Model the fold of this input.
Amino acid sequence: MDLQEAICPKCGGPSPTGDICGKCRASDIEWFTCDGRVRLVRCPNCNSMRDNNGWNDCERSREDLEYEAAISAIHLFQDVQKPEISIKLEENSKNRTFAHISITGLLYNEPREGACTVEILWQFDSCDRCSRYHGNYWQGVVQLRADGRKATPEEQERAKRIAYQAEEELQLQGDRLSFVTRMEEGREGLDIIVGTQTLGEKISRDITRRMGGKFSLHPTLVGEKEGKKLFRITYAVRLPRYTKGDIIFIRNTYGEILGAEGKTISYLDLASGIPRTVPESTQSRYVGSVRDGIPMLVIYQDGEMLGLMNEETGKTEEVPVQSWRTIVSGERVHIIRDEDRVLVV
Done:
């Protein structure tokens, strides 16, 4: 050793600065620690995980979560450089896994290595959402009805799809408790029971926006919690009085309903063949529906008159046909009667 070279005052070895050398500094420091035990809480129904902030949806595998838990149990001294961590998982039972951990790194340019074992405990609890769902919890009900008629099966199925889509959208936004508790079909329509009022209002707005009609809210006081009044809300959704395929008398002519959206209805003018859109409040009269039309066979066409035959009875009759329609012999059509008028639809 050069007499001019600085030495470590602790071990007498070389030290570039004359301070305690890296080897001595490293030997005096607990360069890593491991938590002996980590607890993971998972919902057995939907696989959600609970942390300090509550429940969260989770689609990760058990193995990924255990690796992450093992990493979180390791605490390195702040000056450790180039750490390398190796983890071997040993599943002891459904509720217990041991993570065998090996660690290497540099501390003040001195190589360090060590090992520890972390016990990972699994706890299975029903999450907030599943507890409410399986407990039949609800905060509101969307009552789907139609104005002056029964909601059709097609309308009810479409409303179901809209409700589940609304549920999915809210849950993707992090609203875990917005779920459809159940659906009940009744004589007049569909009841959609929901877990939150947020979902109930969204379903109501989405249905009326896409299917027409309107809705109103009717709260019912059900109790108090911590001095705050608790309400359940009935969302009364009323679909338009007409549905696709209905035949109406409107503006001195006949029309076939094409659909409804918002506060308007669209129909095909059967006299001209032109689609029209009018406010829902426009005065009109229900005549029938193409679903209830009488099937007839076209046996001839003479100008604007059709010769039709009822294939069940063999009875024939002549009816006027709209000039914009092209109908050929042998074609099958349906007719709707309105007093002394016969409409080909």
